[in-house]
Amino acid sequence: MTTHQHGTRPGTGTDTIVVGAGLAGIACALDLSRAGQRVELLEASDGVGGRMRTDRRDGFLFDRGFQVFNTSYPQVKKRLDLRSLRLRPFTPGLVALTPTGRVRLTDPTRRPSEAAALLPGRTLSARDLAALAALTLGDVLLPVGALRRRGDTTTQAALRSAGVSPRVIDDLLRPFLAGVFLEEELETSARFFHLVWRSMARGTLCLPADGIGAVPARLARDLPDGTLRLESPVTEVTDSGVLLADGRERQASTVVVATDAVTAARLLPGLAVPDSRTVTTYYHAAAASPLSEPVLVVDSTLAVLNTCVLSDAAPTYAPRGTALVSTSVLGAGPPGGEAAVRERLAALYDTDTSGWDPVAAYTVEGALPAMRPPWPLSRSTRFAAGRYVCGDHRATGSVQGALASGGRAAREVLASREPAGRPARTP
Questions:
Q1: Distance between alpha carbon 343 and the CA centroid of its chain, in Å?
Q2: Residue 389 pLDDT > 90, yes or no?
Q3: Segment holding 141, helix H or strand E
Q4: Percentage of the chain surpassing pLDDT 70?
Q5: pLDDT of residue 420
Q6: Which residues does 414 contact at the CB level (< 8 Å), separation at least 6?
Q7: Nearest to 96 by CA among 168, 21, 4
Q8: What is the separation of C-alpha 266 from the centre of its chain, rounded to a whole number of angstroms?
Q9: What are the strands of the beta sheet with 39-42, ordered from one edge?
Q10: In 370-398, which residue ranges form alpha helices assigned H by DSSP?
C-alpha cells in the first residue's frame, strides 16, 4: 500500500473523501473502495490509527495510552487476520488491592486449577458468586439484539439490580470498570456495559507483539494504492470537498468526517458531540518484573485506574532484561504527577519502586466518549446531503464501535447513490 501523499488520483476524480485515518476512517475507506468507489483517505498526522498508535523508542514500545485488544468483537473477526497480529494474551482475571487485602479473581472456565479460590467465603460470598455467574451467563447466552433492546440505566444500577453487593461493586468491579469506561461513578450506559461484559467473557484480552498500532496498520495495508494521504490536515469542509491546511482544495461530492469528536464538530458546525474522558498513562522501566504473569492490577482507592507489566504479556515491548510497567490514571494525572504514581505502585506491587525509571507518559484527551444513559449503541452517520460523520463517538467507545461506525458510514454513502427502489451493494 502506498502511504505517501504523492501519486494519488486527482481530486476531481474522487467520489468520496474520508477525513481521518483512525479505525473508523480506514474501515469506511476500505468498504467504499471494495464497492468500486474512488476514495481519498486524508490523515493529518504521519501515520494511521488516530489514538491507536504505538511509538518505538530506545527499544521500548509505547502505546499512546494503555490499550488492550479484544478478540471477540464481531468487527475484529470480520476484518482482521488475528494470526498476523501475533497476539499475546493477558491472564483472564485481575488482582485487586482492597481494604481487606489483595484479592485475585480469575475466570474458572479458563483457569480450572484456580477455581477453588472462588469457593463461597474465600473471595466472594455465595450470593455474590451467584449474582456474577447469572449476570455473565445471561450476557454470554442472550442474543446481541436482546441486549441492545434492553432499557438503559447506569452500570451502577445494573450491578445492584443483578444482586451484586455494594462491597464487591466498590472493592472489585468499580476499580476494574473505571479503567474500562474511564470514569469512577459507574454512570456509563448499562447497555454498553453488558456488551463489554459479554465480549470479555467470550474473548481474550491481548496485546499485539508490535504494539496496539499494529491493528490499524494491518487494516490500512488493504487500502488500494494511492488511497491514503498522510500529513494532509483538513481545515474546512467546503461545498465542493475539503480545504487542506496548505490552501489546496480536494474535490469530491461526498465527504465523510472520521476524526475525533472535537475535530468533527469543528469541521461540521452544528454537529452535536458527547463529552469525553481523559486518561494519562505512565510508563516505567524496571530491572525485573514485580510479577510473574501478565495480569491487570486494580486499586480500590482509585488512586490509579490500573497497572500491569506489559513485557510479561509481550516481551517485545521492552529491551531484553528490562520490564515495562504501564499505569493509567484519570484525567491529566494526580497532584505530584509521576512521583505520586510511583509511590502508589510500591503498595500495589508490594515492592520498592524507587529505582524504577519513568520512560514515557501520555495524556490522551478525548480517549473515550462519555456514554451516559440512554446511550444509542449506533446512530446514523448522515449529517447533511453528501456529508457524513463516523467514529466511536457515533457508536460505542471501543474498537468494535469505531469499526462498526465506519462500516455504517460506507453503507449509508452507497445507499444514497443507488437509484430509488434499488438496494445498495453491501461491501
A1: 28
A2: yes
A3: helix 126-141
A4: 92
A5: 53
A6: 32, 35, 37, 424, 425, 426, 427
A7: 168
A8: 23
A9: 228-229, 39-42, 16-19, 254-257, 387-389, 382-384
A10: none
CA 31 to chain CA centroid, nearest Å: 21
Half-sphere exposure of 173 (CA within 13 A, CB side): 23
* Residues in Cβ contact with 10 at an 8 Å cutoff, skipping those fewer than 6 apart: none
For residue 338, the model assigns a pLDDT of 95
| Distance from C-alpha of 273 to C-alpha of 284, rounded to nearest angstrom | 35
- Partners of 56 in the beta sheet? 61
* Strand ordering across the sheet containing 306-309: 101-106, 93-98, 296-299, 306-309, 323-330, 276-286, 357-369
Asked if residue 8 lies in contact with residue 193, where contact means CB atoms within 8 angstroms, the answer is no
pLDDT, tens only, 252-304? 999 999 999 999 999 999 999 999 999 999 999 999 999 989 999 999 999 99
Cβ neighbours, 10 Å, residue 301? 12
C-alpha cell at 149: 433492546
pLDDT above 70 for 91: yes
Beta strands in 82-163 (DSSP E): 87-89, 93-98, 101-106
Cα angle for residues 246, 247, 248 (degrees, 5° grid): 100
Q: Which three cell numbers stand for residue 192?
A: 454498553
Angle between helices 190-202 and 174-181 (to 10 degrees): 100
Give 214-248 pLDDT, tens digit per residue: 999 999 999 999 999 999 999 999 999 999 999 99
CA distance 122 to 116: 9
- Asked if the model's pLDDT at residue 2 lies above 60, the reply is no
**Three-state SS at 362:** strand
Whether the CB-CB separation of 409 and 256 falls below 8 Å is answered with yes
pTM of the model: 0.92
Residue whose grid cell is 520498592: 352
Residue type, 195: L
Rounded to 10°, the helix 23-34/399-417 angle is: 40
User: Rounded to 5 degrees, what are φ and ψ at 225?
Assistant: -55, 135
Q: Give the contacts of 421 (CB within 8 A, at least 6 positions apart).
A: none
End-to-end Cα, the chain, rounded Å:
20
pLDDT at 119: 52
Q: Identify the three-state secondary structure at position 96.
A: strand
The per-residue pLDDT for 117 is: 59
Asked if residue 13 has pLDDT above 90, the reply is no
Q: What is the mean pLDDT of residues 96-123?
A: 75
